[in-house]
Amino acid sequence: MDGGPGRAFGSVFIGENAYGSRGPAHANRKNALRLEIEVLSKNLKKQFVLSLAVALLAPLVAFATATPAIAQAAPEASTSAEATTEAPAKTAHKVHVVIITNRLTYQPPTLVVHVGDVVEWINKDLYIHTVTSTDGKTFDSGNIYPKRSWRYKAVRKGTYDYSCTPHPDMKGKLIVR
Ligand SMILES: [Cu+2]
Description:
Layout: H1 5-11, H2 24-78, E1 95-100, E2 106-107, E3 110-113, E4 118-123, E5 132-133, E6 149-153, E7 158-163, E8 171-176
Parallel strand pairs: 1-4, 3-8
Antiparallel strand pairs: 1-2, 4-6, 5-7, 7-8
Helix pairs in contact: 1-2
């Protein structure tokens, strides 16, 4: 017979089993149907994904096209004066950290800062400590509990020795320039 599987496959779409029996064509038709269903469902999936993407993207696109108007509106209001009056770079005030260690030390023991800077002592020990200037007036943290910290803003130039009230052997130095 010259009707090989190829021809039988071709006949599948015409109608009934071309061979009138449950021969290879029958199996091929089944396969072809299965293929068709697969292709269809793939297309459906594609369509679904596409429409989902469109549904998700639409608000984004709308947002993206709408925001430039808002973004552009803002700067116009503030572009006027400033350019000429702004001072040439203010010196930024830093925050310095001194660690109170479990070896009863301030780390670093000596710290140099500028007026306006802030120093933060962080107690990483399990005991209470203080940061108390030895001149008896410039600063005194009071009790700094474990895991707590205390901040001091350096307001006046000078060299300030300090120590810990419960542990007078704990000594540190703050130099303000
Ligand atoms: Cu102490």
